[in-house]
Specification:
Helix content: 40-55%
Radius of gyration: 14 Å
Number of helices: 5
Number of strands: 0
Structural class: mainly alpha
Shape: globular
């Protein structure tokens, strides 16, 4: 899969669930024959305070990407340059993260894969 930095099976070793929640934010990747359960299980296996870290890591990556592309005309004209996303400094729940990610992705495959890669990057960084 070209749009993923590393195969999501890397996440399987992190699957001992600490909580129960039905994430839905990545369900659109099912159309690419990818199983979002791998990502959901990872999110449920980490300590709850780390959910904020996942979000903030994604925002850091997104802001870096925006800074790198800020002079590119195609980027400036794109919808990707129109939104602002901010760090969160409070603890969050699975429900809050799911909502934030759903709002971020907004049925956009590029943003969905961006988030998937963020999770993989968070683990391997």
């Amino acid at each position: 899969m070209n749009c993923l930095k590393t195969h999501p099976n890397l996440l399987i070793k992190h699957n001992q669930s600490r909580r129960e929640y039905n994430y839905s934010c990545l369900d659109i990747i099912k159309e690419y024959d990818l199983n979002p359960i791998i990502y959901y299980n990872y999110l449920l296996s980490i300590e709850e305070f780390k959910l904020r870290n996942i979000w903030n890591h994604m925002i850091k990556k997104w802001n870096t990407m925006e800074n790198d592309l800020q002079d590119k005309v195609d980027f400036i004209k794109s919808d990707y340059s129109k939104n602002e996303y901010h760090y969160i400094h409070i603890n969050m729940s699975d429900e809050m993260l799911n909502k934030l990610i759903m709002d971020f992705i907004n049925e956009n495959y590029v943003k969905c894969f961006f988030f998937c890669n963020t999770i993989i990057n968070y683990i391997t960084a």
